[in-house]
Amino acid sequence: MNGAAGMRWDGEGALPGPRLNGAALPGLKARAHPARSSAVEGKGSGRHALSALHSWQREGLALLLQGREPPTTARSSLLARSSLLARGRYRAILALCALIVCLAASLAGCSEAVTAPRTSAALPILQLPAPLAAYTIFVTDLSTGDVAELGKHTYHIGRSVHGLGLSSDGRTLYVTDISANRLAGYALHGAALDFTNGAPVGSQPVHMVNTRDGKTIFVTDFSGAAITVLDAATWATRATIGVPAGPHGIVLSPDGRWAYVACSGGAAIAVLDTASATLAATIALPTGAQPYGIATSRDGRYIYASDNFTGRLFVIDAATRAVLHPIQVGLRPALIARSPDGATLYVANGGAHSVSVLDLARDPAQPTLRRTVPVDGYPHGLAVTPDGRYVVVANTIGRSLSVLDAASDRVVATIPAEKYPNDVLIVL
Known about the structure:
Elements: E1 7-8, H1 33-42, H2 49-55, H3 58-65, H4 72-81, H5 90-111, E2 136-141, E3 146-149, E4 153-156, E5 161-166, E6 172-177, E7 182-187, E8 194-200, E9 205-210, E10 216-221, E11 226-231, E12 237-242, E13 247-252, E14 258-263, E15 268-273, E16 278-284, E17 291-296, E18 302-307, E19 312-317, E20 327-328, E21 333-338, E22 344-349, E23 354-359, E24 368-374, E25 379-384, E26 390-395, E27 400-405, E28 410-416, E29 421-427
Parallel strand pairs: 1-28
Antiparallel strand pairs: 2-3, 2-29, 3-4, 5-6, 6-7, 7-8, 9-10, 10-11, 11-12, 13-14, 14-15, 15-16, 17-18, 18-19, 19-20, 21-22, 22-23, 23-24, 25-26, 26-27, 27-28
Helix pairs in contact: 2-3, 2-5
């Protein structure tokens, strides 16, 4: 199967029927789907703000900020015209969104702050294709506030959830609730997620990392131009680190000494000292750059950052902090992921509806484009399986997940999702 014409696992592309146990899991409050739908549709413009920033279309922006999904024709229009948005309108839209997000998120956070996952028989179960049966795969949905565990459960966490992360010991799943400005932690044991702790963080939290020793969590506060530093044992706030505007992606260096943050509104990479929880340096990128996703080479010598504005991938020397020659990828690149063996880098190109596959094996200082793989509309998050065999891509407007075979660099399955799948996490 070539390109995006991979197999749809239900045969027709429709969401599978609900298959969760009729009764709520022990200790969890069941929630009827109609009530959940009513709450979601009637409030919470803050949960859609980041999706609006990714689509860059006036039609979709207006609907998303009202808490409503674009109709099918409007979504098709977004996909068809995503590459035609004039650059001069970008900053005006970004400023407007930031203002609305701050106001809406403040109101949303006061009315609902869900911590314990809630589930019911009405929530759809996302299919887990047979080739992925050995993995546990989680997906956030920015629109519904759900976290899906493919093939098993779907949990309602809050109004809007964005990013996923894993503790250094692999025992805790982290989820950012951008509507309530919280980070939540769930134990990965037993048959279902078990809420362990949560904490308020800054404005619009999106992504996070846990230090190698497991003691500290760094959370990027997208609208707050800050990093919230949490004590992983007590979940108390240790510090707040000011960084350039729009901190989004964050990654640890392989040795754990540094945390690198892509600051999309500040045209910079923030370098955090993980031991002292301070800003150690700021790496300036070319004027107008919007670094969004971030990764490192396997040995930590190079930092890679996607430029959501110009469709480039920046390569940075981690030792000298010099910006090397950029590589052209696709339109509106979002998150990026490196294969476990360090040989391949994957870039989700939102505006191009594709994934760029870059070869790092020959020279990690000069990645080369090996293939461009078409996927469904506006991919945002992606993750590589721990053995490097597959890549799972969250297609936001496409309402689906694309599964890439890493050996052939081709889509081998397309899994229907809920309304706005945003981030992916895979564990064995």
